[in-house]
Amino acid sequence: MHELAVCQALVTQVTEIAQQNFAQSVAVITLHIGALSGVEPALLVSAFPLAAAGTVAAEAQLIIESQPVRVHCQTCGADTEATPNRLLCGECGDYHTQLISGDEMLLANLELITN
Amino acid sequence: MCDSCGCNVTPGNQHLAYKPVQAGTSAVTVLKKLLAHNDDQAGHNRSHFDTRGILTINLMSSPGSGKTALLEATIDALKDEFRIAVIEGDLETENDAARIRARGVPAYQITTGSACHLDAHMVHDALHHLDLSQVDILFVENVGNLVCPASFDLGQHRNVTLLSVTEGDDKPAKYPVMFRAADVVVLSKIDLLAVLDDFVPARAEQCLRQLASTVPLLQLSARKGQGMAAWYDWLRSELVAQRARVLAGQTVKPYIQTDGLKLHGHAEVS
Ligand SMILES: Nc1nc2c(ncn2[C@@H]2O[C@H](COP(=O)(O)OP(=O)(O)OP(=O)(O)O)[C@@H](O)[C@H]2O)c(=O)[nH]1
Ligand SMILES: [Zn+2]
Ligand SMILES: [Zn+2]
Ligand SMILES: [Zn+2]
Ligand SMILES: [Zn+2]
Q1: Mean pLDDT value of segment B222-236
Q2: CATH tag, B26-256
Q3: Which residues are recorded as binding Ni(2+) (chain A) (predicted)?
Q4: How far apart are CA A31 and CA A43, in angstroms?
Q5: Domain boundaries in chain B?
Q6: What CATH architecture is A2-113?
Q7: Where is the binding site, in residues of A?
Q8: Which of A87, B80, B192, B205 could in theory staple to B212 by disulfide, Cβ–Cβ 3.0 to 4.6 A?
Q9: pLDDT band at residue A1 using 50, 70 and 90 as cut-offs
Q10: Ligand 1 pocket, residue B64 CB under 6 Å
Q11: How many angstroms separate the CA atoms of A91 and B79, rounded?
């Protein structure tokens, strides 16, 4: 269970950004998480209050936008949807593909309260 | 050790990514990797290795898949050819480091307590306990766990994921994040295949290929000395490649991480 470690990293980043922007607190935190990122959104949501307690992000709403798993086929050139354990080309079925979306673990944006 | 390079150096341009603030509520677009601090530290670790020409390899697997046994056999076979050192990660004991030291090679044990993975900061602390000027290949044996370790860059050049034949041949399908991260997959304990009627190596390989992985799958038994030559050859060729990169002033991350950086529209905002 490393979601707590990920939340602690998140709170550290959010705190730095809040300070740089002279914010009193953080209203909304939006993350982009892919199914192949290695973090479970539900576990992030339950770990977040622990990591955020006593920080500028303590009252923040955590929004997680999940990102679809998509692959680019090196054989036929198609970009198609895939599932986490079948990253095959949806057009020709080849396994020489590259992930173009689905392993994101990004802090996308913040809404800060600054007055 | 770090006086020359400066620890915890972070890119100085981070603030440029943020919009100016108005009174009241303001929206800030960040698009920053959640583990950016870890990744910065990992990059710093990597430069410690590169300045000394060291090849660093991260070993990952479930508990008991045979990571330490593979290291013991590797040390016995190659310690006259290369200078080897090991960083061990374990929840509690010093046992694995003691096993490595018994083979005549320096080992530093990180006991993580409750943490189920190593991170770049733990590895950096460990580096201060090893004489890196005396190392050609540094192995990091990660905490036995198929879930978390793949998410944390340690500064290694290559990832090796072990799958022992007692675990079931569908493991790559169940743990795609871990197996996608491997630069080579080692099918370990193949001496036991004779007594297992339900592990089919070809099925394990098929599960791996369905993750779009084209990496080598090496079948070996560290205990019985089967299939070890291909593993040693892989190590030798990786060290040659690392030395060539160092001469050219280049470095490398495990394949998956560079791949993601190149291909993701937003990953270049780091
Ligand atoms: N039959 C057989 N047993 C093996 C082999 N390699 C390791 N083992 C046994 O498997 C058990 C676990 O091996 P370790 O090398 O300690 O595994 P590990 O991955 O380092 O374990 P952790 O560090 O606890 O995650 C030990 O009893 C080993 O003797 C092998 O090739 N064949
Ligand atoms: Zn195709
Ligand atoms: Zn350092
Ligand atoms: Zn071990
Ligand atoms: Zn973990």
Answers
A1: 98
A2: 3.40.50.300
A3: 2
A4: 14
A5: 26-256
A6: 2-Layer Sandwich (3.30)
A7: 2, 73, 76, 89, 92
A8: A87
A9: low
A10: yes
A11: 49
